[in-house]
From TrEMBL:
Keywords: Pyridoxal phosphate
Source organism, top-level taxon: Eukaryota
PROSITE patterns per UniProt: AA_TRANSFER_CLASS_3
Listed cofactors: pyridoxal 5'-phosphate
Record's protein name: 4-aminobutyrate aminotransferase
InterPro entries the record matches: Aminotrans_3, Aminotrans_3_PPA_site, Class-III_PLP-dep_AT, PyrdxlP-dep_Trfase, PyrdxlP-dep_Trfase_major, PyrdxlP-dep_Trfase_small
Family under the similarity heading: Belongs to the class-III pyridoxal-phosphate-dependent aminotransferase family.
Length: 457
């Protein structure tokens, strides 16, 4: 556990500064964080909290991983900002090499796009770096529109892609992200996502495999209906999907759906864009969730966990796609910042050397197993997820307790987030979380649910 630290600012000063922040920011707790180490955060009041949010899937190596901190400190002493439109810098080139090694993070990008183009790069993916997940999604849409000369963007119900004007228009996980902000980006089409737990009440019972098969069949039929009712394939540039929905409830897509979607996109010459902003960099136990499905997207979007908290995002695509863009059509002042790239190189090395992906698989099994045991006595409707991206959806009869449960967890020393329009909480521990820490988290969660249910009686 972390030791308490002395207050660096007066309570009145902190309160004044907090009042000046935008009211549009939602926030789980009123705490001011002072420092963090591994799975724990410490507040300015000396309170230590088990962090099962990881900055919403960002600090995958835990807070202030020594290897990442050392790399960032060293780079900051050499070069903080090497602007990408002016020249190259070494950390970015090192990062490209690390991402593109044969068994590295971008191994899922091995297949070429359907578009014609040169492949002199030997099939190695081409990359563009930016700052945030939303920016990277927008970069993917720009690339798809420019390369295909088509405008339509197909997204899936319950998806979350960001809060900029463009990505907000693509987001359907909650209406809070769009309500009151005026006209949306034109050309966005919406199709159903195969949320098996929710579709079973409409598509009938049977075994889990039968329910999944019917759900996938229904959603594929709806994709064909989109082409008949909303826009022809000749107008659709790309289909953007989260293989595991984040804000939509931590819902993994069935493997058969992802594979059939890949075939459908290829058939209709629609680019398949995998939004792995939240599911990437070890979160699901593979480098990317697409590793579990055995197919390659045309464009892969990444952010969050790549640099352990330093702002960095990007897209990867075959050269046949990236090479369609003329010089000057992409860029950004802070795109691929040198310190962030150095932190990303260290992050990937730490994940590899310390076996974090294997730990994510093992601890994910422990977490889902413990939650499945709690499901036997608590009003839990569904436990789902891949690796350490785990969602728990409560029964409707519980009366909407997810928000109260997260607040009770906070009171008992753990940060846990609500998600989805359904009554769901999500577990996002760091990938190097220990067995004892997962056990601690399960105990806090169980006692918190019990306490909330007792108050409702």
């Amino acid at each position: 556990m972390l030791r308490s630290l002395p207050l660096s600012r007066s309570v009145s000063t902190l309160r004044s500064a907090k009042s000046q922040l935008s009211s549009g920011i939602g926030r789980l707790s009123p705490h001011t964080f002072s420092c963090g180490s591994g799975s724990f955060l410490t507040t300015t009041c000396g309170l230590t909290l088990l962090d099962f949010t990881s900055g919403i899937g960002v600090t995958n190596t835990g807070h202030s991983h020594p290897r990442v901190v050392a790399a960032a400190q060293k780079q900051a002493g050499r070069l903080v900002h090497g602007q990408v439109n002016v020249g190259y810098h070494e950390p970015m080139l090192d990062l490209i090499d690390g991402l593109s090694e044969p068994a590295g993070p971008l191994a899922c990008m091995a297949s070429p796009s359907f578009l014609p183009g040169p492949h002199a790069d030997g099939g190695r993916p081409h990359l563009f770096f930016w700052n945030s997940g939303a920016e990277a999604v927008e970069a993917a849409v720009k690339l798809a529109r420019h390369a295909t000369r088509k405008q339509g963007v197909l997204v899936f119900q319950g998806g979350y892609h960001g809060r900029t004007l463009g990505t907000m228009s693509m987001t359907t996980s909650k209406n809070i992200y769009r309500a009151g902000f005026g006209a949306n980006l034109p050309g966005v089409l919406v199709a159903p996502f195969p949320y098996v737990h929710r579709y079973k009440e409409h598509l009938g019972g049977g075994t889990e495999e039968e329910r999944e098969e019917r759900t996938v069949d229904f959603c594929m039929a709806q994709l064909d209906l989109v082409l008949s009712q909303q826009a022809p394939a000749s107008d659709i540039a790309c289909a953007v999907i989260e293989p595991v929905q984040g804000e939509g409830g931590y819902v993994p897509a069935p493997a058969s759906f992802i594979r059939r979607l890949r075939e459908w996109c290829t058939k209709h010459e629609i680019l398949m864009v995998a939004d792995e902003v939240q599911s990437g960099f070890g979160r699901t136990g593979g480098w990317f969730a697409m590793d579990h499905y055995g197919v390659s997207p045309d464009v892969l979007v990444f952010a969050k966990g790549i640099a352990s908290g330093f702002p960095l995002s990007g897209i990867a695509a075959p050269g046949s796609l990236m090479n369609t863009q003329p010089p000057g059509s992409m860029g950004g002042t802070y795109a691929g910042n040198a310190v962030s790239c150095a932190a990303a190189v260290a992050t990937i090395a730490a994940m590899q050397d310390e076996g974090m992906l294997a730990n994510a698989v093992a601890r994910g099994e422990q977490l889902r197993g413990g939650l499945a045991e709690l499901q036997k006595r608590l009003p839990i409707a569904d436990v789902r997820g891949l690796g350490l991206m785990v969602g728990v959806e409560f029964e409707p009869a519980a009366g909407g307790i997810a928000g109260a449960v997260t607040q009770e967890c906070l009171a008992r020393g753990m940060l846990l987030l609500q998600t989805s329009v359904y009554d769901t909480v999500r577990f996002i521990p760091p990938l190097n979380v220990s067995e004892d820490e997962v056990k601690m988290g399960l105990e806090i969660f169980a006692s918190s649910v019990d306490a909330v249910l007792a108050k409702k009686k």
